[in-house]
Specification:
This protein has about 325 residues and is an alpha+beta fold. About 30% of the residues lie in helices and about 25% in strands. The protein has 10 helices and 14 strands. The strands form 3 sheets. The chain has a 7-stranded mixed sheet, sandwiched between helices. Strands 1-6-5-7-4 form a 5-stranded mixed sheet, covered by helices on one side. A hairpin with a 2-residue loop joins strand 13 and strand 14. Helix 2 runs parallel beside helix 3, helix 2 packs parallel to helix 7 and helix 4 packs across helix 9. The protein is globular, with a radius of gyration of 20 Å. It starts with a strand and ends in a 13-residue tail after the last strand.
């Protein structure tokens, strides 16, 4: 395809024709010539919005685009409604690439009952690989909105599933040949398959109904970055037990192979939570088949401490994600 807006014929057959999920709240959706979308909410509902670019990988970009955006919405306790997309493609990009991206995004929208609301698709010399910027739209009942800043001293700090899932999956896909020099095909394939754990929408909705105080999806900067951000937003201290942070063996071994810190590795698939009754929340999540672990407590003050047996060290502000040291 040539530089400029994607031709109308391509837009119709490879973008609009792909969009199948429809939500009753959407009164104006994706169409040729439409610059906006319109969503009607019921009385007592609040619209929640998020935005994210997907730039860390060119593989599975469509899969990540929807899941990461839905996770952002879920961290506020919101039900995802849909997404607006800005798709930027490099000069000379084949239409088949765009079509595959749209198929991936529609598949995940269908799984999460989300609608592709509209957006913009363009071929440009500004990028050298496909880039997708996603604006997510969700809804939550009044009084049920959850903030990252809701942590209070004494609350339990929990994390769902395992940290490092997204980064491990990306590395296994992008560096497969290199990893196969050390690990078995079954090991690498298992790590690649971690992308099936990336959604945190269900745990977000379950925790919101339970009465969680704060949530933050663990993305760039890994669990260390997310801990810092939730503490900074809430103006609290932390005492976190390092050995309690759940992590898959594949994440540990792949991180060792590349010489990176798995605690600073992009970690979509894990939700960081704070609750007065952490044990109760763990049990409630377990009823829905979701693993969760209490990893520490919020404290009164500003010290954010990592405990490793007898060792105490302070958490540092977020740094560049460990993924970028490899890719």
């Amino acid at each position: 395809m040539q530089v400029g807006k994607v031709p109308e014929s391509v837009l119709k057959r490879s973008v609009l024709k792909t969009i199948k999920t429809k939500r009753p709240e959407v009164v104006l959706g994706a169409s040729v010539g439409e610059d906006c979308t319109a969503v009607k909410l019921s009385e007592g509902e609040i619209m929640v919005m998020s935005t994210d670019p997907i730039t860390g990988t060119a593989k599975d970009i469509g899969n990540l685009a929807i899941q990461i955006t839905a996770n952002d919405l879920a961290s506020s306790g919101a039900e995802p409604i849909g997404v607006m997309l800005t798709v930027l493609l490099p000069d000379g990009c084949e239409e088949s690439v765009l079509k595959e991206m749209m198929k991936q995004m529609q598949q995940h929208c269908e799984e999460l009952n989300m609608q592709i609301l509209g957006g913009h698709t363009e071929v440009t010399r500004v990028v050298n690989q496909p880039v997708v910027s996603v604006t997510g739209v969700g809804k939550v009942r009044e009084g049920k909105l959850i903030s990252t800043a809701g942590v209070k001293p004494g609350m339990d700090i929990l994390v769902t599933k395992w940290v490092g899932l997204e980064g491990t999956s990306i590395l296994a896909k992008e560096k497969e040949e290199e990893l196969l020099n050390r690990f078995s095909p079954a090991f690498v394939d298992g790590a690649k398959d971690f992308d099936r754990f990336l959604s945190v929408v269900q745990e977000g909705l379950v925790a919101a109904e339970f009465g969680v105080a704060a949530m933050h999806d663990v993305t760039e900067g890994g669990i260390f970055g997310a801990l810092w951000e939730i503490a900074e937003a809430s103006k609290v201290g932390l005492e976190i037990e390092l050995l309690k942070i759940p992590m898959k063996q594949e994440t540990i071994e792949i991180s060792e192979f590349f010489g990176i810190n798995p605690y600073g590795l992009i970690s979509s698939g894990s939700m960081l939570m704070a609750a007065k009754d952490g044990n109760g929340l763990v049990l409630e999540l377990a009823k829905h088949g979701i693993a969760a672990t209490i990893i520490g407590k919020a404290t009164d003050g500003n010290d954010r401490v990592l405990l490793n047996n007898e060792e105490r060290r302070f958490l540092e502000p977020p740094k560049t994600d460990e993924l970028y040291k490899v890719l």
